[in-house]
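Hi team,

As requested, here is the filled-out complex form for the nicotinamide-adenine-dinucleotide run. I kept the field names the same as last time so the parser does not choke. Let me know if anything looks off before we queue the next batch.

— J.
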Amino acid sequence: MKKNICIVGIGYIGLPTAAMFSSYGHKVIGVDINENVVNVLNKGKITITEPGLEEFVKKVVSSGNLSASIVPKESDVFIICVPTPINKDKTANIELVISATKSIVPVLKKGNIVVLESTSPVGTTEEVIKPILENSGLNIGKDVLLGYSPERVIPGNIIYELKHNDRVVGGINEKSANEIKELYKTIVDGNIYTTNCKTAELCKLMENTYRDVNIALANELAMICEDLGINVWDVIKYCNKHPRVNIHNPGPGVGGHCLAVDPWFIVEKEPKLAKIIGLSRETNDFMPNFIFSKIEKLLKDIKYDKKITILGATYKANIDDMRESPIIKLVNILEDNGYKVEIYYTFIKDNNLVNEDLLDSCKDSDLIILGVDHDEFKDLPWDEIKKVVRGNIVLDTRNFFNENKIKSSGFIYKLLGKM
Ligand SMILES: NC(=O)c1ccc[n+]([C@@H]2O[C@H](COP(=O)([O-])OP(=O)(O)OC[C@H]3O[C@@H](n4cnc5c(N)ncnc54)[C@H](O)[C@@H]3O)[C@@H](O)[C@H]2O)c1
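And here is what came back:
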């Protein structure tokens, strides 16, 4: 059955979700407090970068099924997709979830469904959203169904994953969970599993925590290997020949607004019990400092002002997102210690942090560091780079480069996790 759906917050998650529902014939209004986002969407355009999204949105806007508004309007369904950032003290900031929920109260009516998609601390749906919705005078659970359904998509492949990933739906009661499942079934080919809200909330947090903890284990192993004079990449390669072992890859740290943030929401609720989770966050956050100590050792004999070129600045490969990037943290540490740093990166345009000219950014450098393993860095002109640098060391933090190629251009090749 086709519904009228209001999606509150039309960013990386809300906009593809809005486009997907409208492509299946639902009438969707994308709501955003950012006037520019609303105006641009009403012209069939977008303000974010995601492969295939612009064409998809253009099609559904011109079909008349998707439009945008600054305020929520009466609908059958409300889906909340606003950001849930972290405060400086590592606690969850759910202010936007609260204001988005308040904004739908005046237009809420009997028979509505409300779904929270924002990654949220355990208990948010039942203990924060439900009481706000009750201000409408309606019985939440009976007159209005309520639930939580987290998003698992990966930036760069959102449209495909939105449709094909399995989903978890938590309801404040069985009826809520089942009706929300029926709603998502109209756009999702994957399996949809129903449960209660707290279970679904913790699932989302734990999925990202699982990855963060495993990366921390690999990072700790890399530091141990450097101390023992063993190559971590060999250890990982041979360990992973074990049928039940899958050690992740170490690197310069973990960034982004999910892996570097969500585990803290568990630590905040359970500080005494979530020990491995908190320690893993600290381990991953420490990696830029560890890379810095490696740099200090590599350049200890240079007495003049040192210049370093870093290739890549985003929190992971082949995207344009620098949120919580460990490379930015490394840059700050280096600059605080008197190093001159240049970042080479072609993804982000018009950003005064980065130099888009490879040879110019490497000019007079004492050290070239691979920060992010973007595909386009696979085949760099090392002979040309060698002509413009002052030093002769390349530090690969991802085991990404072809060691022989770099050495044949006259560089010394250094690798994270190998002394
Ligand atoms: N981006 C991802 O890869 C990803 C993946 C899984 C889960 N999530 C989660 O999804 C949620 C949304 O993340 P995102 O990346 O789409 O955020 P985003 O920053 O891309 O977009 C959010 C949008 O919400 C708008 N907004 C903020 N407050 C509002 C309000 N009160 N009313 C209406 N609009 C409002 C903002 O203007 C913005 O356009 C977060 O909780 C995030 O953790 C994100």
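Two things worth flagging: The chain has two domains: 4-204, 232-415. Residues 8-14, 31-34, 37, 81-84, 96, 99-100, 103, 118-119, 151, 153, 155, 257-258 surround nicotinamide-adenine-dinucleotide (CB under 6 Å).

Thanks,
J.
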